[in-house]
């Protein structure tokens, strides 16, 4: 059991540490990161129950519905809901890059519990594949979601609403596409590899863009202090 727990936690903690250490400005308090991670972890259980009910009642009747509704819409909406209502207005969310840290934290909390439950049910031999695919994918969905929420928090009113909408819609679309590829048949891996490369390319671009936004944010604050 200790091996399964270690294998289940390791990829989530490694990815979260990576995004945390990429913060080139003011590091976020570890206590609040752990709290957001736990939000995502707790979210796993009601979501899994809801998905089970939908499947048992035959609401999920096609690969499209499963991928884009049961997985993409439900999971990304609830993660977005937590980020928007529990983190977005928090005092510690004080620069654009913070959105990436907290977005990854919530997503990885969810992915870590899901990963442990899967390994308990199917065996530790799936640990590497799970780390490379679902855990990494959840982290990158969180990066994209957090990037646009970070952008929204420090944008004007018109751009704010647009960025808030994208912060939910784009991760939902990416997540749904991921699950649809996963269930597309025996050749799914040939579609998944380019999709994951695209996902990592997108995530790393968002990190660089968030760094630029954060630099601009701090420069503006310095200019305001000087002018005062």
TrEMBL record:
Keyword Cell inner membrane: no
EC number, as in UniProt: 3.4.-.-
Keyword terms, alphabetized: Cell membrane, Hydrolase, Membrane, Metalloprotease, Protease, Transmembrane, Transmembrane helix
Membrane topology classification: Multi-pass membrane protein
Transmembrane segments: 6-21, 33-53, 65-88, 100-121, 127-149, 161-182, 188-204
Gene Ontology BP terms: proteolysis
One annotated Gene Ontology cellular component of this protein: plasma membrane
Primary site of residence: membrane
Subcellular locations according to the entry: Cell membrane
Catalytic class of the enzyme: hydrolase
GO molecular function, one term: metallopeptidase activity
Membership in a protein family: Belongs to the protease PrsW family.
Function in brief: Involved in the degradation of specific anti-sigma factors.
Protein name: Protease PrsW
Taxonomic source organism: Rossellomorea vietnamensis
Gene: prsW
């Amino acid at each position: 059991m200790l091996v399964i727990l270690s294998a289940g936690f390791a990829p989530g903690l490694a990815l979260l540490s990576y995004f945390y250490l990429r913060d080139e400005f003011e590091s976020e308090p570890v206590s609040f990161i752990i709290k957001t991670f736990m939000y995502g972890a707790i979210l796993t259980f009601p979501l899994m129950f809801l998905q089970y009910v939908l499947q048992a009642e035959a609401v999920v009747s096609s690969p499209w519905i499963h991928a884009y509704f049961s997985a993409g819409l439900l999971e990304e909406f609830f993660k977005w809901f937590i980020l928007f209502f529990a983190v977005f207005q928090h005092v510690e969310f004080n620069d654009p890059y913070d959105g990436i840290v907290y977005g990854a934290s919530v997503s990885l909390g969810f992915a870590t519990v899901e990963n442990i439950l899967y390994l308990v049910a199917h065996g530790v031999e799936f640990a590497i594949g799970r780390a490379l695919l679902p855990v990494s994918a959840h982290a990158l969905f969180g990066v994209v979601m957090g990037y646009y929420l970070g952008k929204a928090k420090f944008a004007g009113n018109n751009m704010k609403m647009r960025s808030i909408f994208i912060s939910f819609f784009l991760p939902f679309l990416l997540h749904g596409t991921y699950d649809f590829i996963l269930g597309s048949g025996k050749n799914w891996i040939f579609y998944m590899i380019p999709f994951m490369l695209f996902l990592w390319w997108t995530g790393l671009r968002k990190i660089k863009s968030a760094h630029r936004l954060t630099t601009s944010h701090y420069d503006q604050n310095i200019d305001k202090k000087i002018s005062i």
